[in-house]
Design goal:
Belongs to the asp23 family. This is Asp23/Gls24 family envelope stress response protein. The relative contact order is 0.22. The chain has one domain: Alpha-Beta Plaits (2-Layer Sandwich). The N and C termini lie far apart (36 Å). It is elongated and about 50 Å long. The strands form two sheets. Strands 3, 4, 5, 6 and 7 form a five-stranded mixed β-sheet that branches. It contains three helices and seven strands, in the order ββαβαβββαβ. A hairpin with a 2-residue loop joins strand 1 and strand 2. Helix 1 crosses helix 3. It is of the alpha+beta class and 120 residues long.
Length: 120
């Protein structure tokens, strides 16, 4: 499914894979985030950290009337303050979607799927 944006020149469709890649990159660039996790850990592997090619497995995109809602599943580093990491991920995802695609993220829900000791 694609997100559709109406412009004066016509309709622009942006695939969810593109949005998931940008969201995953924005999330993993935050200090304290070890990587992306699958939204379905039993099917894809409980301890698997997703690479750039699989970010769409850890991101859910839903189109709403006034923008998009995004669910992000991450793994954080042990000893980090989860609330601060989550706020940072939310802010970065909203900013990157707005700057790169012109999409307004009305919701960014961060789910911490696990905690990893850095170096593992």
């Amino acid at each position: 499914m694609a997100v559709k944006i109406q412009t004066p020149s016509g309709i622009i469709e942006i695939e969810n894979e593109v949005i998931a890649t940008i969201v995953g990159g924005a999330a993993t660039d935050n200090y304290g985030v070890v990587g992306m996790a699958s939204q379905n850990p039993l099917r894809d592997g409980v301890n698997q950290i997703l690479n750039k090619d699989n970010f769409s497995k850890g991101v859910i995109v839903r189109q709403q009337d006034n923008g998009v809602a995004v669910d992000v599943h991450v793994v954080v580093g042990y000893g980090m303050k989860i609330s601060e990491i989550s706020k940072s991920v939310q802010a970065r995802v909203k900013n990157d979607l707005n700057v790169m695609l012109g999409i307004i993220a009305t919701e960014v829900n961060v789910t911490v799927q696990g905690v990893r000791v850095l170096g593992d």
